[in-house]
């Protein structure tokens, strides 16, 4: 994900209520939570290992899981009207078109931005 796309996503998510709490221990800034979650979601194999993320970001296992869950909830809420699953007939056409181009099993893209989500 390039910087421009990251900042656009951050802007869309930053005020979501999932990132607010009444605790005496405030949450990390949204930019940190988004960065950690996208780093985790953007890796596969050993790269997605929580131990790797703990070492890289200096936070606990539970914190990484919480950041990821919060980010996914916020994305689902804020982008729900923009992200949709195609109808069966649309999926079939899209699937066939991507298969012809060498991408079997693909049924869509989001604005052309490459976001590799493994989990």
How would you describe what is shown here?
The relative contact order is 0.15. By secondary structure, the protein is mainly alpha-helical. The protein starts with a helix and ends in a 19-residue tail after the last helix. It has five helices and no strands. The chain has a domain at 3-84. The chain has helices at 3-13, 30-41, 50-57, 61-78, 88-100. The radius of gyration is 17 Å and the shape is globular. The longest helix has 18 residues, at 61-78. The model has no long low-confidence stretch (mean pLDDT 84).
C-alpha termini separation: 17 Å
Per DSSP, the total helix count is 5
Rough outline: globular
Uncertain runs are none
Protein name: Transposase
Organism: Riccia fluitans
Topology of this structure?
Elements lengths: L2 H11 L16 H12 L8 H8 L3 H18 L9 H13 L19
Helix pairs in contact: 2-4
Protein name: Transposase
Keywords for this structure?
119 residues; mainly alpha; 5 helices; 52% helix; 0% strand; globular
Summarize the structure.
With 119 residues, the chain is an all-alpha fold.
């Amino acid at each position: 994900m390039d910087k421009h796309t990251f900042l656009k996503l951050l802007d869309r998510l930053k005020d979501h209520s999932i990132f607010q709490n009444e605790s005496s221990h405030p949450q990390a800034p949204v930019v940190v939570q988004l960065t950690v979650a996208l780093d985790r979601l953007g890796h596969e194999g050993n790269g997605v290992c929580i131990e790797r993320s703990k070492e890289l970001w200096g936070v606990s296992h539970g914190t990484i899981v919480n950041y990821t869950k919060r980010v996914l909830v916020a994305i689902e809420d804020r982008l729900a009207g923009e992200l949709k699953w195609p109808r069966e007939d649309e999926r079939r056409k899209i699937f066939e078109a991507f298969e012809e181009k060498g991408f079997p099993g693909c049924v869509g893209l989001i604005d052309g931005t490459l976001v590799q989500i493994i989990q």
